[in-house]
Specification:
alpha/beta, 230 residues, 5-stranded parallel β-sheet, Rossmann fold, 3-stranded antiparallel β-sheet, globular, 8 strands, 10 helices
């Protein structure tokens, strides 16, 4: 039986950083759901789907592209594995790590990820991966929708002020000019959107452990989550 750890929470809570660290310490697979969406986009690109058509003012053309995406998205097999500590994204068995970060794939991913049927297919693939391997998965609805029977569920959060401070510091270190109050406002607005959206809104699963990382280090959060796995 595989072991599944689900980590949900709002933007800026540090989910991916913590999930990767927990996966490394446990020897589990960290499921990079974003990379899986990009692999799907690469497949659609190879099948000749034109993302510009989906954004066309011509409603008939836009609908034609959507229909094609819906038709094709059930066909590829997408998975993730680790080799020598490196994450390998597999598209029908092919290592596509070096192909999913191109501008063409990014543009396709922004279009295809908005199609509900694509999300349904990727959730199926994520659940398949979780049934076969020990995984750590993070997102907005992992514990409520993707892995409702996960062995460990965590709702990782932090105050808006702390999440804004972290983002502000990160941007400053990159040399990007930014305003703390603007970041704080953006985070609060995103929280509201995520929590009130119709499809799979962000919420804490009833059986999830709440972890507030506002006054915790990355290592402390990881150790706390690891303690829940015993």
């Amino acid at each position: 039986m595989s072991v599944n750890i689900a980590i949900d929470g709002p933007a800026g809570a540090g989910k991916s950083t913590i999930a990767k660290l927990v996966a490394k310490k446990k020897g589990y697979i960290y499921v990079d759901t974003g990379a899986m969406y990009r692999a799907m986009a690469l497949y659609l690109h190879r099948q000749g789907v034109d993302p510009a058509g989906a954004e066309s003012d011509d409603a008939a053309k836009a609908e034609e592209v959507k229909v094609k995406i819906v038709e094709l998205c059930t066909k590829p097999d997408i998975s993730i594995k680790y080799e020598n500590g490196e994450q390998i994204v597999l598209l029908d068995g092919e290592n596509v790590n070096g192909l999913i970060r191109s501008e063409e794939v990014s543009r396709m991913a922004s279009v295809s990820s908005a199609v509900p049927e694509v999300r349904v297919r990727l959730v199926q693939l994520q659940q398949k991966l979780a049934s076969e391997s020990d995984v750590v998965m993070d997102g907005r609805d992992i514990g409520t929708v993707v892995l409702p029977n996960a062995d460990v569920k965590v709702y990782l959060t932090a105050s808006v002020e702390e999440r804004a401070r972290r983002r502000f510091k990160e941007q400053q270190e990159k040399g990007v000019e930014c305003d703390l109050e603007t970041i704080k406002k953006d985070i609060a607005e995103r929280d509201h959107r995520d929590m009130t959206r119709k499809t799979s809104p962000l919420k804490q699963a009833e059986d999830a452990t709440l972890v507030d990382s506002s006054d915790m280090t990355i290592e402390q959060v990881a150790e706390h989550i690891l303690s829940l796995c015993k």
